Amino acid sequence: MFLTLIAFATMLLLNPARTNDAKKMQQYPRLQAAGQQDRILIIAPHIDDESIGAGGYAIDALANGADVYVVFLTAGDCNRISATLMYKTFEPTTANFLSVGNVRIRESRKAMSILGIPPDHCFLLGYPDRGLRTMVDNPGAIVRSKATGENSVPYADAVSPRAEYTYANLMNDIKKVMAIVQPTTVIAPVPFDLHPDHSAAAEVTDVALDELQLHPSRLGYLVHTTRSRIHTAFMKMPRRALLPPTRMQSFSWTTYGLSTAVQKTKTDVLMTYKSQRPYVFLLRNAFVRKNELFFLYPER
Question: Between 20 and 30 A from 177 (CA), which of 41, 45, 206, 257?
Answer without folding.
Answer: 257
